[in-house]
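All the exercises in this workshop are built on plain-text protein records. The record below serves as our worked example for the rest of this section.
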Amino acid sequence: MGKRSYKSYTKTPEENRVNRIVGLNIRNQRIKHRWTQTQLAEKLGITFQQIGKYEKGQNGLSAIRLLQISKEFDVPYHTILDNIYEETEAEIIMKLP
């Protein structure tokens, strides 16, 4: 059998920026709720490592996961998407508790 040919997918700078900002918004909500990554992960049925990857912007979210997260935080889904076009990462980080 030969090697499988996989297309490499490199995220654009804009995708990376959006993932990082969404991750910061998730982290901000988690901290507001005084939850650990493990506590949030258990509520979502995923690992704390995955929460860490979301918060660091290493992994993007599916629409379903976005809705699950916003439901757990009891916020509208757009709260998790706040600031993706209006602020820089540095400005968001300065607002974190």
